[in-house]
Structures are given as C-alpha cells and as structure tokens.
Amino acid sequence: MLDFSRFQFLTFDCYGTLINWEGGILPVVRSILAAHGKNADDATLLKLYGDFEQRAEAAPYQSYRQVLASVVAQFGKEFGFAPTAQQSASLAASLPGWKPWPDTVSALHRLKARFRLAILSNIDDDLFAETRPQLSTDFDDVITAQQARAYKPSLKVFELALGRINAPAHRVLHVGQSIYHDVIPAQALGLASVWVNRPSARPGIGAVKAANATPDVTVSSLEELADMATETQSLRPEA
C-alpha cells in the first residue's frame, strides 16, 4: 500500500483523467468521417487518434490546436479524403465542451482538503482556461505543454512542474490515465504514480499510444483514489 502521508503535491493529467476526452473526440471524428462517407469502429478510431497525436507531438513543438488539426489531416490521409478548414479546426473547437468524468469534481474537492493539487497537461493555456471552470477546483499550479514547449512524455514537462511547485520528487504523486504519457515519464524522474484506468472503447489504453509499465497504484476512478488517500491521510502535509 502506498504511504499517502509522504505526499505534499498531487499532479494530474487532465484530458482523459479528469475530462472524458473520448466522449469529446469520438463524436467529432465520427462526424468528419461520415461527411466523407467513411466509418470505423470506436476502438480503431481511438488507436488511430493515439498514433496520429503521438506523431504530431513528437515533431518540433507546435500548439495543441495545430496538433489537433494535424490529427484530422492524418485521418483524411488514412481514409482518403481532404478535410475542410472547418473540419480541421473542429476538434479544438469542440474541446471546451468536453465534460469531466462524473466523479472528478467531488474527488478533487476531497483531495484538495489534504494535498496541494496541480495540473500537468498536454494542452494550450487558452484551451485549458476554457476547461478549468468545469473542474470547480482551486489548483495550486497549472503546467501546460505550451509553457514547457514540449509534450508529455517529454521529461521537460515534468521537470518544469517540479521546479514550479518547488517540491522534491518523493513528495509528489502523479496521477494519469495514460501509461505512455504519465506513468513512464513520472517513474523516470522518481515520482510515484497512479494509473487511472478509465472506461474506454479501447480498454486499458484509450486514445493514446500503447505502452507498458507498472504504476505504484491502479484505480478505476478518482473516487477510488480519494478513498485510498483519505483513509491514510488525515492532515494536509506541510511544505
């Protein structure tokens, strides 16, 4: 059992972990494909999305809006059509409407009473600003790919976060839905990690590149994490 009393900060991936991004991605991608007379099952679409996004994020830094436009362009190449300008922008345009998982806000409130919380997300600052009100939580810091000029799993994102929150690695617990983006780089820097295995049409992977690692803790929801953390931690740690 992980000793939660040692942690000062919990850092969270946002999209996939706090936000049900598959519920936002899939309707948009299906709509684009349907407009061109194409279709595929959800698991296939999620695999392609994960591959296309990883490819775009591994290139020299570009904004997440550009990453999403690149993803749409790659779907066009895969299925043999040319997206319209509106379709190219449609994933980014839809992102502010992507909703939190039902347990997200209540679990964050419980955890906030005992830990400092930070966001660590592959996102643009302005796009996260649109999401933030839905989370209804006073985060102690927000670290984005735009600020780091790199995307997870780049260690630059995590190194920026550790410097900003001014906490040693052993006092930080990173929480994420992606083994590839979250667990592997967190472990590389000596951070403990929680894998949130959210429901998905592509079980155990979701809309990301497949990868293998063993997190310190695996949960199926944030409520489960909040239960574990609050059972073993009655006082908020001091800095």
Under CATH, the homologous superfamily of the largest domain reads HAD superfamily/HAD-like
Count of helical regions: 11
Radius of gyration: 18 Å
Our measurement of the CA-to-CA distance between the termini, rounded to an integer number of angstroms, reads 23 Å
CATH topology of the largest domain: Rossmann fold
Q: What fraction strand?
A: 5-15%
List the helices and strands and how they pair.
Elements: E1 9-12, H1 21-35, H2 42-58, H3 64-79, H4 85-88, H5 90-94, H6 104-112, E2 116-121, H7 125-135, E3 141-144, H8 145-148, H9 155-165, E4 172-176, H10 179-188, E5 192-196, E6 217-219, H11 222-231
Parallel strand pairs: 1-2, 1-4, 2-3, 4-5, 5-6
Describe it.
This protein has 239 residues and is of the alpha/beta class. It has 2 domains: 4-20 and 99-231, 3-Layer(aba) Sandwich (Rossmann fold); 21-97, DNA polymerase, domain 1. The chain has 11 helices and 6 strands. The protein has a 6-stranded parallel sheet, with helices on both faces. Strand 2, helix 7 (125-135) and strand 3 (141-144) form a beta-alpha-beta unit. Helix 2 crosses helix 3 and helix 6 (104-112) runs parallel beside helix 11 (222-231). The radius of gyration is 18 Å and the shape is globular. The chain starts with 8 loop residues before the first strand and ends in an 8-residue tail after the last helix. Mean pLDDT is 96; it is low at 234-239.
